[in-house]
Each structure stands twice: as structure tokens, then as C-alpha cells.
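Record pair follows.
FIRST:
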Amino acid sequence: RDKKMAKKMTKSAWITCFGAVAALVGLVFYLITSLTGFLAGTVLNPLPIILTAAGVLLALVLVLAAEKLSPLVTDLFVVGAAVCLIAGFILFALGRVPLVADVYFIPVNYPQSEVQALNLSIVGMVCYLLSIAAMIVVAFTGRFTRE
């Protein structure tokens, strides 16, 4: 069954899978930087986690159930996934503004762990941007499965 499904997937489905994986990698970096190192004692914002999970879930439903969804529902899922990922990215980025300010704009005696948290956060945000770009590309492509 898995081989049949892989053969039926189009570029849109593969790009959606890439977007979902990139979002999950970005989420892992969000969790790593939030729970360890310089930011370990700070309050974790759960909204990026929830929004990313919702976006990935919508993307997976698109890939796995594309044949059963109407074109309108497919479009709504693509837009919904993109909106969730964009919102998750924005909240992730806004949570890292103090790091950027300390490291780049107030370069006085900041700990090395703060630089590491910022660099890992930048990697995570790039992953989010890749997932968002993938969902935007998918919005302008065709079907998710071959007939």
C-alpha cells in the first residue's frame, strides 16, 4: 500500500511532506532553545507548539486523504496549514527578540550560551520559513494524487 501511495503522490504532495518535516525540525529547535541553555528558566510559550502541530496535522491530512477531500476543502487545508505555520513562526521570532537585542545591539558582556540560543533559534526560524515557503508553493500547484 505504501508503494502505491508513493507512486500516486504528485509534486504538491512531496512539497507538502517537505514543509511538514521542515516545520517539525523548526519546532524541535524551538523546544531545544526554550528548554535548555540560556532560556531554560524562562516561561515556555505553548502557542508555537500548538500552531505548528496544527499546521503539520493539516499538511498530513492533505497528503494522506487528498483523494477524499473536495477541492475547496483541500484549498482550505493548505491555507490553514500555512496560516498556522506563519503564526507559529511569528510567535517563535517574537520570543527571540530579546536575544537578538542583547547579542547584536547591546554587545556588552553577554554569555556564550545566549549566542548559542540565538544561533539555534535562527536555524529553527529558517526551518519555519522553508515550511511556510513550501505551503505557499503548494497553494499554487495542482492536485496531490495522480488518477
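SECOND:
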Amino acid sequence: MHQHFPDSPPPIPPAGGVPGGVGGVQEWERTYALFTHLSLLLILLPLVPVIPPLVMWLIKRDASTFVDAHGKEAVNFSLSLVFYLIGVSVAIFVLAPLTCGAALLVLWPAYLAVWVLGAYGMIMAVLAAKAGRLYRYPLTIRLV
């Protein structure tokens, strides 16, 4: 039996509920959720990673609870990554001159850690979406 937490997305219905679905989730839902998470690859462009998952989520959120849950997670995670990258960048920009560059040596690994978190979270979310499971990104600020 699934344990349901107050802030977690609703559980997905058991298998057999939808023809062709895995765990009651149709193929188009899994594919759509998968591409919503893959849109996080655009994190290389400042602030752009938030727009594709947001648009994808807004388009299909009413069509499927599965897509709605994955879309919210992707939007929240991409926003969190942007906040983390901005925070580390501001800290580097402000503290590096004050510490003769020492802050850069200390904060650069934090910047890299945000990228690793993004890659790890995206891969795990894509695998979960493909399998028809829900996924909660780690270290996510849930705003949506």
C-alpha cells in the first residue's frame, strides 16, 4: 500500500486501469512527463530551464494527474536549480574580491554540486516517468 504524505502528489492508480498503460499510466503520459524532465537540459542557458517545463506542465496539467505531478516537480526543481545557481554566483561575485579569490576556491565546488544535483535529479526523474512512477526531486523548493 502506498503511503500518502500531505505535500506529495496523489498516488497513481494500480496497473490495469488504463489499456496499454504501465501502472495505470498511458504511454503518452509517460512520454510527455519524460520530455518535461528532459527539458532541464536547457539549464546551460540562464533562466531558460524554467520556461519549457512550465509551458509543458500548463498545457497538459488538466489532462492527466500523472503529467500534472511530474510537471510540478520539473518546474519546482528547475526553479530551485536557478535559485541555487544565482545564490552561488552572487556569493562568488561578492566574496571573491573581498577574500582575494579565496572564496572562489571554496564556492566553486558548490556551483559544480548544483550541476551534479541537476543531472542526477533529471536522470532519476526521466527513469521514473518512463517506468510510470512518480518522482520527488531531492533538495527542491516547492513553489508550485
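COMMENT: The longest helix spans residues 65-98.
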